[in-house]
Structures are given as C-alpha cells and as structure tokens.
C-alpha cells in the first residue's frame, strides 16, 4: 500500500464530539429540545457508541411518556445494563454540566447530521470502490447500484431505524384525521377524474398503477389528461417518459386538449383565427405546469431509474408516467415474458424507492379482439406476463365501445361515440368498479361525465 492510501485508511471519520455532547445535554435540560432534535436525528447519527446508547435510552423514555433528565437516563441505562458502556453516571452528568443552554439544539443537531452524512458517504464510496475493483457484476449494474446508494443518501439524509408500533399508530391516526378534515378526500395524487378519485382516493405513494388497453383506445390521451390535471390543477410535478411519441407530439396533444381545438386542423395548418387565438392563450398556461418530458427511445430500466432519481432530486416530482411498458429495453433474458417480468418488478421498485406513484401504460393481447360478444378487457388479457398483474397495486383498462362499433358500421349517436370507461380491475387496497367518462376524439380530451366540482382550495378538476 502506498503512503497516500495508507494515510487515507488511517483517517478518523468526520464527527463533532462537542456538538453531540451539546445535543444530548440540551435534551436532558429541556423537553422541547427533544422534539427539535428528533426532527433531524436518530441514534445512528452519533459517532460515539456511548452517545448512541444515551440517545436510545432517551428515545425509550420519550416513547413511554417519561421525563428525560440525567436521573431518568442513568436509571434507564442501569436497568438495561448499559450504563458502563455509555460512560457511567459521572459522564452523563457531565453532559448536562457541559451544556449551558438548550437554545441552540437545532443548530448543533444539524452539525451532528452533516457529519453523519459524510460518514455514510465515505462508507458508500468505499463499497462502490470495492465493487468496481472486484467487477463481479456488469459495469452498468455497478453504476446503477452506486447511483441508488448516493440518491438514497441525498433524498432521505439519514433513514430512521425500526419504529415502535406506538409511534407509527400515532402518525397513522393523525393522517386519518387530516383526511377527514378535508372537503375532498383524496389522500394520493389526484387524477382529476371525479369517479376515479372517489374510487382510489388518488394514486398513492409507492403504488405501481397499470393503465392498459388495445391500440387506439386512448391510453396515451388518458395518461396525458391525468398528468395535466395533476400538474395544472394541483401543481403536482410530474415526470413523463415517452418511449413511443416525441416530446413535441405530446406537447401538441396537451395543447389541443387544453385549448379544445381540432388537432387535425393544427397538424394541417388549417386552424381558424379564433381557435388559433385560443391555442396561443393556453400555451402560456401550460408552460407554467410542472411537467417534465423525456422522449428518449428504447430506454432501459436502469436509465429510467437514473433519470427519475435526478428528476426527483432536482424537481421533487410526485408522479412518474411511463408510455409504455413493452417499449422498455430489457436485459437479454431467455424469453420476452421474463424481460417483462423484470421490467414490471423494476417499475414497482422505482415507485417504492421514490415513494411516488408510477403510472405505466401497457398493451393488451389480441385475445380481447377475438373474444365473442363483450370486448371489455380482463386481467387475463395483460400481455406477455402475469407478473404485471402481480406487481401492480392498481390495474385499470381503458375501453371505448365506439372502437368496435365502427367496425360493424353500426349507427351511433354523438353520445355513443364519446362514451368511455375506465375499468378498475384490481385495487390492492380498495374496491374495483367501472368509471364512466367522456372522450372527445378531435381534441384527444377526456372529461368527467359528472359536473365539475371544486375541492376546498377552489381548484376545479
């Protein structure tokens, strides 16, 4: 080992003894300091083992509603037979004496946190270096794992360890209470489709939502409508991976739907002056929407994960849309079914990692076309892999009767032509049902069948 490398390995990891002492002392001086410190720290943030033990003793007292001071902390450690490991009674008393005031506890807690992040970064870098030297995995797999480590560190700073059920229960009750205080009970990302939001309460964090349908049913149009409603009406940042259409094509669809102008007239340059003015006005409104589009073709799941992580870090996206699942480039598995299985599980993992809903579009098999009578899709029609159904938290099918009626040249009213259904065939944590809505073909626009309404903020959707 060269001297420079040896010196690196002999370095003492970053830490701040004085800041750790000040935090622990303040927590024993003032109960308000306990809550402030907890906003930033868990026991792993402390460098010294003794300080970790003392902090954990305080947390046990806090969860039991007991007072936190030097007497109670010493007693707790003594009963756990950890007092000597924590430095002894004299050391704990000294923490309080070394802390003249609890006023700056948050400032000291942030110093402790920063040092802990640096230590975790060093550990991650060492592991990455070791994996790169050993090269047991493919280079891009090592790169993906490295990026995931760094993203997890930057996103959550320090993840807490196990939580007691009592603390989880308290948080859950507060969450339920906040739901009931709202006029409109949507706990997830709102879709802007009234019946669908009533059924699902919005798309929930960490959920994989599959939107499937046969070609020409309007999968992309519906996904864009949901993205538009979330971003424009609720200011929810949305990331869209468009593997099929170019970004300007998506923008044109969104713009025509927003302005209610005929997309064919736009493409052919025959737009009347009044509609052109309407289009121009809506451009400014849509330009402010927090929608981010990536139209790179044939992306792999590794590339999608990497881009989604960056988008989450830079713009705090709250939902990802992938159009569509079968166009994602998979590893060279033994069969396409295995590739789709891997892609499906990776999309679910992405939703969990970023703690946001992922809306993935999917093609349906031709079995729908060959079915006699009712052509409404079923879960068995999901193309190429049963893993999609298994991994998804919500499975929705888009169905428009007009697509099949046109083939039989059956006479239809305007109302018949515009009928559309979202069939919620699976919802892991809720009921299944069919949502009815309207599709205006020339605008590529979905609308609620019921009258529009306002939530408590007054935003129509």
Segments where pLDDT lies below 50 for 5+ residues?
Answer: 1-6, 452-461
Q: What's the number of helices?
A: 20
What kind of sheet is the major sheet?
9 strands, mixed
Secondary-structure element series: HHHHHHHHHHEHEHHHEHEHEHHEHHEEE
Q: Might you state the CATH topology name of the largest domain? A: Rossmann fold
CATH architecture of the largest domain: 3-Layer(aba) Sandwich
How helix-rich are the residues, as a percent range?
Answer: 40-55%
Note the topology.
Blueprint: H1 3-9, H2 17-29, H3 31-38, H4 49-63, H5 70-79, H6 88-97, H7 105-134, H8 139-156, H9 165-181, H10 194-200, E1 208-213, H11 219-234, E2 238-242, H12 247-259, H13 263-268, H14 273-287, E3 291-294, H15 301-315, E4 319-323, H16 336-354, E5 358-363, H17 367-370, H18 387-391, E6 394-399, H19 402-405, H20 414-418, E7 419-427, E8 433-440, E9 445-448
Parallel strand pairs: 1-5, 1-6, 2-3, 2-4, 4-5
Antiparallel strand pairs: 6-7, 7-8, 8-9
């Amino acid at each position: 080992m060269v001297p420079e490398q040896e010196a690196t390995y002999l370095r003492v990891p970053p830490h701040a003894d004085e800041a750790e002492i000040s935090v622990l002392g303040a927590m024993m001086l003032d109960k308000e300091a306990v809550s402030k410190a907890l906003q930033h720290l868990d026991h792993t943030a402390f460098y010294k083992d003794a300080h970790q033990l003392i902090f954990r003793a305080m947390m046990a007292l806090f969860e039991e509603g007991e007072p936190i001071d030097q007497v109670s902390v010493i007693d707790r450690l003594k009963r756990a037979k950890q007092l000597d490991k924590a430095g002894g009674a004299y050391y704990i008393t000294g923490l309080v004496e070394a802390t003249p005031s609890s006023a700056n506890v948050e400032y000291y807690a942030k110093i402790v946190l920063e040092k802990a992040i640096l230590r975790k970064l060093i550990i991650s870098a060492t592991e990455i270096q070791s994996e790169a030297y050993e090269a047991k995995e493919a280079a891009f797999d090592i790169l993906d794992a490295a990026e995931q480590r760094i993203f997890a560190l930057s996103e959550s700073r320090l993840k807490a360890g196990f939580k007691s059920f009592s603390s989880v229960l308290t948080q859950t009750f507060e969450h339920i209470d906040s739901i009931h205080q709202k006029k409109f009970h949507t706990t997830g990302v709102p879709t802007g489709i009234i019946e669908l939001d009533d059924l699902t309460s919005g798309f929930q964090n960490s959920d994989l939502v599959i939107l499937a349908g046969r070609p020409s049913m309007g999968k992309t149009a519906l996904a864009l409508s949901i993205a538009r409603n979330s971003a424009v009406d609720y200011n929810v940042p949305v990331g869209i991976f468009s593997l099929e259409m170019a970004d300007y094509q998506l923008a044109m669809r969104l713009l025509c739907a927003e302005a209610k102008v005929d997309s064919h007239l736009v493409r052919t340059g025959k737009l009347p002056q009044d509609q052109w003015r309407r289009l121009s006005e809506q451009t400014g409104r849509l330009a402010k929407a927090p929608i981010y589009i990536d139209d790179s073709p044939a992306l792999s799941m590794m590339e999608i994960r990497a881009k989604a992580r960056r988008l989450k870090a830079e713009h705090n996206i709250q939902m990802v849309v992938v159009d569509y699942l079968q166009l994602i480039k998979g590893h060279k598995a033994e069969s396409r079914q295995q590739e789709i299985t891997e892609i499906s599980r990776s999309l679910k993992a992405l939703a969990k990692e970023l703690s946001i809903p992922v809306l993935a579009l999917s093609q349906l098999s031709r079995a729908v076309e060959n079915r006699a009578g009712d052509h409404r899709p079923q879960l068995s029609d999901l193309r190429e892999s049963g893993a999609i159904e298994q991994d998804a938290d919500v499975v929705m099918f888009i169905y428009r009767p007009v697509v099949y009626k046109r083939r039989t040249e059956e006479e239809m009213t305007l109302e018949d032509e515009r009928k559309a259904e979202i069939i919620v065939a699976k919802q892991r944590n809720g009921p299944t049902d069919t949502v009815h809505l309207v599709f205006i073909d020339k605008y590529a626009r979905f609308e609620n069948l019921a009258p529009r309404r306002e939530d408590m903020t007054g935003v129509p959707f």
